Amino acid sequence: MDFGGRYHIAAPRAAVWAALNDTAMLKAAIPGCHRIEWAGETALDLEIKVNLGVVHPVFKGDLTLAGIVPAERYTLSGKGKGGLLGLAEGSADIVLADDGEGTLLVFTAIGGASGQIMRLGKAIIGNSAQKVIDGFFERFGDAMGADVTPLGAK
User: Fold this and answer.
1) CATH level 2 (architecture), domain 2-152
2) Do residues 91 and 110 touch, judged by C-beta distance below 8 A?
3) Which of 37, 28, 47 lies closest to 141 in space, CA to CA?
4) Phi, psi angles (nearest 5°) of residue 45
5) Who's near 13: CB < 8 A, 6+ residues apart?
6) So where are the chain's domains?
7) Are 48 and 80 in contact (CB under 8 A)?
8) Tens digit of pLDDT for each residue in 45-87?
9) pLDDT of residue 57
10) pLDDT of residue 56
């Protein structure tokens, strides 16, 4: 499953980069996030309750950052286990660019799941995942104190 979007954030690129690496900002922005903390220079531990419509599993997992170019880009990869529902994994490329006095953030991601999660159907999961992504950026802007405008697909 592929996801993505383009967002204009009314804040300088350096401020957006700092917020993307601030666990307090991320926790405020990630729907259902119970815990997120740095486990190393490029690794985060995460616990999140996900709304998949009919079920609400809690995923525990880890995130790894790679291809880091400060204030420009990185790739975020992660795996999480949702108890009896199985595993979910994905990766996302986040790219920042100056956009007037603000920042253009381009987000492209791929994700998948196994076990009982896939039995719920790709449509439910896809819709839920895109809602999570859109909700993340809305709350991310709120946490930063900056307006975020969705610009549509990548």
Assistant:
1) 2-Layer Sandwich (3.30)
2) yes
3) 28
4) -100, 145
5) 71, 96, 97, 98, 103
6) 2-152
7) yes
8) 999 887 666 777 788 889 999 999 999 999 999 887 766 556 6
9) 75
10) 75
